[in-house]
Write a structure and sequence with these properties.
single chain, 770 residues, alpha+beta, Pdz3 Domain, 2-enoyl-CoA Hydratase, Chain A, domain 1, seven-stranded antiparallel β-sheet, six-stranded antiparallel β-sheet, 23 strands, 41% helix
């Protein structure tokens, strides 16, 4: 109750302060010529003040939104707009510092977006200058055999001091892009020759683009598309850029979402959306067009009988509005037009590829609720047999958990709701009926989700006791417990797979399984997101997540920054230097609190783990899939964008040929080792990959066969789990849980939406499923 009243008071304060803005500035356009056309609405002012108040008073760091923080926010805002330091001149930066650095925070508290908008409009202006320069330059004869170099990643480099130096870089950058497109076109034409000479390799698909445009035309089209998307950005999206940057300056997981993105966050957390039931992506032949890939069975689009896979979307009209030509629009923009409230109509104009414009069909569709059934928990059984050990194949249940999702709005309203714990319980019950010899829980690429849900999930595997500790910004510690009297839905052998993209709730789950000795954790060290956010849906516009607590293992150590280190390391397919919490700006530090009182169910002793690691290492150095993945890691390291690259097409072609040669060698070694025929050359390999990708993209997720490079992790986890011997250890003497108002409490009751705890990474910019 105390938490709810605190939250209510904060919201009331934010709204109350914003109310002053209503009375003073209703409907007034900003007079500043640098932000001409941007109408600061009362709702935007209120939202800005609400976000400022949240940061000033309610963030975990207890860091006031003062002048120093305002400077940091503005600097990060500039860096987020121009991460390579190629658009803003140093004179722009000096001007921004002089005008806005000392008052950026104060402006936010007043609900004044003008500084952020002015900087954004300068960014838009500089971008337009770049686009116009590029268009003019591409009409000349571009020399692709220069003798100079370029550094593509300029994040650590200073801004250019003069327009001349900036344009010199732009010229080299455009030349490098043109060179890359030229080489890509050469590769594409060689691949298309394979399609024409060997039609069987296409798997019955039309994969020949036959793009007759010159490299300059392709780049000009690409730049025009990017320029159009930038010019179409709306005021709410500019506000989102300003406010989200402000929140990110406090920590990487406090975020602001404009209305469209707020809807995306809700979709990812509930696996439910309101739309027409299609999945889309840019057309492979011409990315100016957006193509419908699949239709949801029984969805609104499928029910019309008029929408077909491969249709190109060329126009969209929302209810009562004129048809908009969306050729050249991004999938995110098209998502924003297609989605809407259940029961409202949307009209789409589509045509089949290679069909004339006159054949376009206009179809009116009524939006409805779309359940993303394929996006939830999945389960299956695989068989593994250890040579010389197993008399029969061992049946291993596999649980794939994509996220810790929960439709909390439906739960709050007393409706039937979807959640990961409910789906997992059903999956375990189904697996238990199949006489499995062990279970692998796959948390790879799982970004996290609901704190309540991960606690319920752990209760299915652990007898009883504390699951995770949560500390707030006042030092109060709350302990989430499993208090079901020792019930376990699954009590057999267990392994959990993680990788660098396993974050937040995934890390809580893996850490608890590891600390209780309940099962093996195998794979790669996790992301290291050890913070919990509340989701705020009560803003004037959009929604936000705010970091208010950190979570800790029952042993007292945080997963923040360090992540969960697996018991057995497997090949890491991600780049540690650019991925995970440890690579983020302003990440919260690692620390510890006291151990909670708990009784381990078992313990994998150090000798056992050493043996398992040694045995696994041998398998990883001999298994064709692991060898292949390790080789790809080495090939990836051949490119360093922080190092100078030659702007010479012959040198670049030679470098690419070397990368292609090594990649083909790695692929063919894998194929030979697994009894498959090697590819004759790089072009045949690329043609086969294209055909395979296109075929898979048109299948429903449940119908896609498992990729061997993914499945090898499942099998290795199963081997390790079966080989391991858990040695029961007497529980340590109970530790005293830290004192405090919230200490030693059980998991809280269901939270209201404004206080819903979420422990997930932010959603992708635009999902393709509608």
């Amino acid at each position: 109750m105390k938490k709810q009243s605190t939250q209510w008071l904060l919201s009331a304060a934010a709204v109350g302060v914003a109310g002053v803005v209503f009375s003073q500035s209703y409907g007034v356009a900003v007079a500043n010529t640098e932000i001409e056309g941007f109408q600061i609405t009362p709702e935007q002012q209120m939202t800005t003040r609400q976000v400022a108040a949240l940061l000033d008073r309610s963030h975990y760091l207890n860091q006031p939104l003062n002048q120093e923080m305002g400077r940091k926010i503005m600097q990060m805002y500039i860096d987020n707009l121009d991460p390579n330091h190629t658009l803003f001149l140093q004179s722009d930066i000096d001007e921004f510092n002089k005008k806005y650095a000392d008052n950026f925070a104060d402006r936010m508290k007043r609900g004044d977006l003008s500084a952020g908008v002015a900087i954004f409009e300068r960014y838009r202006k500089r971008s337009s200058e770049y686009f116009e320069f590029a268009k003019k330059y591409l009409k000349t004869e571009v020399n692709l055999k220069r003798k100079d170099t370029i550094v593509l990643d300029r994040e650590d480099e200073p801004h250019f001091k003069s327009a001349k130096a900036q344009r010199n870089y732009w010229e080299r950058q455009i030349t490098f892009q043109l060179m890359s497109i030229t080489l890509g076109q050469e590769s594409e034409k060689a691949k298309e020759k394979v399609f024409l000479d060997n039609p069987d390799i296409t798997r019955g698909q039309d994969l020949v683009r036959d793009d007759k445009r010159s490299p300059s035309e392709i780049l000009l089209n690409r730049l025009s598309r990017q320029q159009g998307q930038l010019m179409r950005l709306k005021d709410d999206e500019i506000m989102e850029t300003v406010l989200n940057t402000a929140m990110l300056t406090y920590d990487p997981h406090s975020n602001y979402y404009a209305p469209i993105q707020a809807t995306e966050l809700q979709i990812q957390s509930s696996l439910q959306l309101e739309g027409i039931g299609v999945s889309i992506r840019p057309d492979r032949k011409n990315p100016d067009y957006t193509r419908i890939v699949t239709l949801v069975d029984g969805g609104p689009a499928a029910k019309t009988g008029q929408v077909k896979p491969n249709d190109l979307i060329i126009g969209i009209a929302q209810d009562g509005k004129a048809m908009q030509d969306v050729v050249g629009w991004s999938t995110r923009e098209i998502v924003g037009l297609i989605r809407g409230k259940r029961g409202t109509p949307v009209t789409i104009k589509v045509r089949q590829p290679n069909a004339p414009e006159a054949s376009a069909r206009t179809i009116s569709i009524v939006r409805d609720v779309i359940e993303q059934e394929e996006s939830g928990v999945t389960h299956r059984v695989v068989e593994v047999q250890r040579p010389g050990i197993d008399e029969r194949p061992q049946r291993i249940g596999v649980l794939e958990i994509p996220s810790f999702y929960l439709n909390y709005k439906a739960r709050r309203n007393g409706e039937n709701y979807r959640s990961v714990s409910i789906d997992t319980q059903r999956a375990i019950e189904a697996l238990n009926k199949q006489n499995i010899d062990g279970m692998v829980v796959d948390l790879r690429n799982n970004p996290g989700g609901s704190l309540d849900e991960v606690a319920k999930m752990l209760g299915l595997f652990i007898k009883e006791g504390p699951l995770v500790q949560i500390r707030d910004n006042r030092g109060n510690v709350q302990v989430y417990k499993d208090e079901d009297g020792g019930k376990q839905l699954y009590d057999g052998k267990l392994a959990v797979i993680t990788n660098l993209a396993s974050a937040s709730a995934s890390e809580i789950f893996a850490a608890a399984i590891q600390d209780y000795g309940r099962g093996l954790v195998v794979g790669s060290t996790t992301t290291g997101k050890g913070s919990a956010q509340i989701q705020l849906d009560n803003l004037a516009l959009g929604s936000a997540t705010l970091t208010q607590r950190k979570f800790y293992r029952i042993t007292g150590g945080s997963t923040q920054n360090k992540g969960v280190v697996p018991d057995v390391e497997l090949v890491n397919i991600y780049d540690d230097a650019t991925f995970g919490e440890r690579a983020q700006k302003y990440a919260l530090p690692w620390d510890t609190i006291k151990t909670a009182a708990y009784k381990p169910e078992g313990k994998f002793v150090s000798d056992t783990l050493a043996t398992l690691n040694q045995q696994s290492k041998i398998r990883q150095t001999t298994n064709p899939e692991f060898v292949y993945l390790s080789t790809l890691n080495t090939i990836r390291d051949m490119e360093d964008e922080k190092a100078p690259l030659k702007i010479n097409i012959d040198a670049r072609r030679a470098k690419m040929k070397l990368i292609e040669q090594r990649t083909l060698e790695a692929e063919n070694k894998r194929r030979i080792a697994t009894g498959e025929k090697p590819y004759a050359d790089w072009n045949t390999y690329q043609a086969a990959i294209d055909a395979k990708f296109e075929e898979r993209s048109q299948m429903k997720e449940a119908e896609r066969p498992q990729l061997p490079e993914d499945e090898v992790f499942i099998k290795e986890a199963a081997y390790l789990m079966l080989d391991a011997e858990a040695v029961t250890k007497v529980a340590p003497k109970p530790s005293v849980i830290p004192a405090g108002p919230a200490a030693a409490k059980a998991a809280p009751a269901t939270l209201e939406p404004a206080q819903q705890d979420i422990i997930a990474t932010k959603p992708e910019a635009a999902k393709t499923a509608k």
